[in-house]
Amino acid sequence: MHAQKLPAAAGWRWLDAGFAIFRRNPPLLAMLVVSYWLTVIFLNLVPIIGAVAASMIIPGLTVGLMQAARDLDQGNPAGLQTLFGGLKQNPRTLLLLGALYLCCTLAILGLSALLDGGDLLRLILSTKPADREALESGSFLLPSVFVMTLMTPVLMAWWFAPVLAAWHGQSVGKSLFFSFVACWINWRAFLAFGAALIIVAGILPGLLFALLAGVFSGGQGSFVGSFIIMPLMVVIALCVFSTVYASFYASYRDIFGQPEIV
Hints:
Shape: globular
Low-confidence stretches: none
Largest sheet: none
Number of strands: 0
């Protein structure tokens, strides 16, 4: 297993490559992303057990999305069966990866309780919106920074782990190790990729929404605007998130090359 070391510019190219993959079949990739979301949401409706089950199958569903992106990239057919087909590739390892990720996340959130008495953990687990005064007071800032700091190496270890387990037949330990190393040696590219995500998936859609809201603000314009803005933002969100998921595959393709098994 060899991971290529890429320049920082590669991070920006991944997002461009993701959009190129998305353009090959926008309705299909958008449908798979929505199916991914709905599957996770429906499972989470079941108390406790559903949340655990959702966490355990996310690596398999991620592999399914990556497989769909790979098929589109290579001009091969893909469909809804591609998404759930990811659950069949080295399933035991993928389930273990999901369970272990859940344990790591809960452990880190538990440790954050030592800083704020569990306020951040209760906020995340609660279905109620956050108290405005608590947010403005900045009481969540320190535990949030603490959680993000500890979650960074976890995310690095899991970034490629599902596809390394499914496509290269690696064990839990090896997939986590090689994923972490690949992210570590390409930290510049991932930093650039993160900046690109913030701009494309955050700043630009936000500016567009603000612009449209300003154009249609007040009176009947506001009423008419709601029928234009909301569908448009849904379409934009599907395009952006489909591109982002496809860009995950692009990062794998550039760093590790083509799969050895699939």
